Structure formats: C-alpha cells, structure tokens
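RECORD TYPE: protein structure
NAME: Septin
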Amino acid sequence: MHLSPGSEAPSCRHGLFRSHWRFGTNSTILTYFVSPHMVIKNEEMRSLELSGQVGFNSLPHQVVRKLVSQGFCFNILCVGETGIGKSTLINTLFNTTFENEEADHYEREVKLRSQTYELQEHTVKLKLTIVHTVGFGDQINKDESCKPILDYIEAQFEKYLEEELKIKRSLSNYDDTRIHICLYFIAPTGHTLKSLDLVMMKNLDSKVNIIPIIAKADIMSKTDLGNLKKKIMTELQSYGVQIYQFPNEDEEVGEINSSLNARLPFAVVGSTEDVKIGNRMVKARSYPWGAVQVENEEHCDFVHLREMLLRVNMDDLREQTHSRHYELYRCCKLQEMGFKDTDPDSQSFSLQEMYEAKRREFFKELQHREESMRQMFVNKVKETEAELKEKEKELHERFEVLKRMHQEEKRNLEEKRRELEEEMNAFNRRKVAAETLMGQALQGCSQQPLKKEKDKKK
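PREDICTED:
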C-alpha cells in the first residue's frame, strides 16, 4: 500500500487550504490544513532513534486484521466463444463447481451473465464475481459484439463514481463490482488472431487488465503451440494492444513475474475430472493415447496461470483496476462535467464558487436553449401557417376550376335539354299531322263504297 493524492481538489475554509490524501485503495482520508500565509521550507527529513518501544510497529498487523475481517472481493470477466472452455477453466482454478447455465450458438446478441459466490480459504473470505459473455462471436454480424461488454465495464465504473460523489458515502462497505481482470480465451486454431479478437482486446485494454489465454491447448503440439504464442504476441504488439504485464519491481515476486511474462499468452487445459496416474489422483483429461495432466507444467500453463492470478498478483490486479483504469475513466468523466485541476502556482478555487459558476452557466445555457426552442417553435408555426395558406390557395383555385367546369356542364345540359324539347315538339307536330292525314284517308275510304251503291241504284 502507498499514499497517493486523492480525487478531491484543494478547498479553502477559514483561510486554510484543505488537501486530501488516500491510503492505498481504501477510503481512509488524511486531511491537513495549511495557511496560505505559511511559508514551508524544504528541509531534509531527519531520522531519529527511539529510546524504547513505542508500538506503531504493530500497524501492519492491525491493517491485516482489519482487512481479513472485512474480506476481499475479486471480479473476473471471461470473454470467449461459446464452448471454448471458460466455465471448465474457472471451476478448475478454484477447485470447485460453480453453477452455470449451458449456452447454445444461436444467441442473437451478446449477453452478460454475472454470478457472485462467497468463498473461504482458512480465515480469508473472498467474494468472487464471475461474468460470462454469453453468445460472444456467434453472430454473423460481429460489429455489435464489443458494445455490450464495454457498456457493462463502464457501468460498473459509473456506479463506483456515483458512490464517491455522494455526500454520505460508504466506500468501505460498498459492493465493488468493477472488473479486476479479463481472461480472454483464444481459439487454438494454430493460425493467427481473428479480427474480432484484435478489435475486442484493443477496445478493452484501456478499461480492464487483459490476460490472453489459449484454450484447449491439448489439441496442439508443443511446436505449434510455441509458434502460435509468438504470432499472438507479435500481432498484439503490432496493433498496439496493451495486455497486463506482471510487475517485476518487487524483489519478492519480481523473478516469478518475469518468468510469467515470458509465458504469455498462457496455454491452458481445464478439467474437473480426477484421473488416477500411478498411485495418485490428479486433475486430467483422459484420451485413448493417455492423459493430459492439468497441473503438470510440461503439459500446459495452468499452474502458472493460477500462480499469477491467485497467489502472487491478485492485489496488484485490484490496485491496477483502481489506480489506472478507474482513474482514467474518472478523469474523463470529471472533465466532461467541467472540473479541472489547478496548477501549483495558480490561485486555488473553491467548490462553492465552481458550483455557482456551473449553475450560472447551466441556467444561461438553459435560457439559450429555451429561447432557441421558442424561436424554433415560432418559425415552425410560421412555416405551418404559410403551408396552410398555400394549400388554402390551391384548394380555392381548384374550387374555382371545378365551379367553372360545373357551370360549363350546366350550360351544355341546358342546351341539350332545349334541343331535346324542340325535337319532341317537332315530333309531336309531325305526329298530329300524320294522325290527321290518316283520319282523312280512312274517311275517304269509307265514303267510296256508299257512292258506288248509289250509282248502282240509279
């Protein structure tokens, strides 16, 4: 653990500048007040010898006792294709069987499934959260495979930042769900990395600690496996993908971590099956030609992965998540909110003044937006009125055209009616004349026989 500057900016109270320092990753804050008129001289630190036992040498034991009583949390994100062996490897790492639903290859989108377990080894309690990426790489269109995973990681950062910015916060009891490590499972194809793997790891390297893993390494020979490791590391370096590097500054673990860095990416085999090899039972995978022992360094890198993940660098992974990835996210968010750091030589500012300035800026922007929306509304109303007038004009013109057409048709109909009446009158006259002629003809025919009879009588 170490002392590092906290996230809060110096503030002024009663003529004193207040600064905060954070102890490790805990929420303990050391506060000191310095007068702006106080002149601090840079003097060398003097070492003094104690004449007797004081007692502060028990401070590390007090810290350990407190941390053990509180317990620890560790969150693992497993990214890889369906059926590549993610669940089996996690079960093998923690020597237990976690509950996990089997996934198929027909998921329409990537879904993240989080499961939390309470584990205890001797007196140490561990709250373990495992996040599985269900359906990753199973879609035909893989453009949207990265977004759900990135959104989930940023959502956990956002929750922690919201807790930090609360007035009454309780970070010591906060359920930290930030991802501490991403185990990225690579298919043992013997070729190079897929484009999806490169894009995914490039998007993840600034948000989480990445450990690349070659899954099911027992299907490849040692020569092919060594060549694949070199290809993967070469591609990661050429594309600028930053994976987690085990720290080698500490003398106690520096040598171990240097050897672990040379073995990246880890080629692992997972199995929960106990197989009898000689006179002892070991975790292995049985084949007709023999057995692949999980904890045999000649067969795979499982032992080195467990050494790195659980026994040597678990605290460093937690520290890197907080001090590097979360701090990067936090800085970007606070800059978006308008906060900024002051130079050492510049005049300090108060949060109250910044709040008032941001409040005035917000109301000014709100007023500007309101005025803009009002003007937009007025313009929209004017445009609508103009459109309605134009449509009214078009309707009026169309009405006049239809009216003229109606009057024209009416005149035509009146003319046709007059013509028809005239034809009817002419027909009636001809009919009357014909009937008159016919009556005269009939009358003439009836008088001729009478005349003949009279002539005969004479």
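COMMENT: The chain has nine helices and 13 strands.
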